[in-house]
Design a protein that fits this description.
8-stranded antiparallel beta barrel, mainly beta, about 10% helix, 9 strands
């Protein structure tokens, strides 16, 4: 793990040293975008999710997830749901006017939840079904986001230890 992080750091430092555009001119704007993700863990918990990203003067932050959607259903049966949450932070390194790399670190959580429609109660917000987590996996997440800029539109593609995601954003 230490070797991978050292190699990643040195390669990004080298890329930064040979970049063809000044960091200040590329990181003067702010940006807001939408993302879609596919999350996978070792114990076969897989889940898609949606989210957003925000970048201000080169500082990048994203959040993606998918929550339980059937906690208040009136079905009298059992069903399985998968939920996920992930967030990352990083700093944009411009390579040239239209291409940037953003090394990111973050955290990812995914779980499998079973909802039991036989075991329910009525609360002030409506019907509340019994839910329990059958499997959960979480951990430190790291990787890189690749950003292609076309005028004021940013296209993102990313690969981290637990996620593959992409999206589109607008610079302001």
């Amino acid at each position: 793990m230490k070797k991978i992080l050292i190699i990643l750091f040195l390669s990004l430092f080298t890329i930064h040293a040979f970049s063809q555009i000044s960091e200040k001119s590329a990181n003067k704007r702010w940006e807001l975008g939408i993302l879609g993700t596919y999350m996978h863990f070792k114990n076969d918990i897989t889940r898609g999710g949606v989210g957003f990203n925000f970048m201000y003067h080169g500082i990048y932050v994203d959040y993606m997830g998918w929550t339980s959607s059937h906690g208040s259903d009136v079905k009298v049966e059992k069903w399985k749901e998968e939920t996920c949450k992930t967030f990352h932070a990083g700093y944009q390194i411009p390579i040239n006017r239209n291409f940037r790399i953003i090394p990111v670190i973050g955290y990812a959580v995914a779980d499998i939840t079973y909802t039991d429609g036989h075991n329910w109660s009525v609360t002030s917000s409506g019907i509340s079904n019994s839910q329990y987590a059958a499997a959960e996996d979480k951990g430190f997440d790291f990787g890189a986001v690749f950003c292609v800029n076309i005028k004021k539109v940013d296209l993102f593609a990313a690969c981290t230890a637990h996620n593959f995601y992409g999206g589109i954003g607008l610079e302001f």
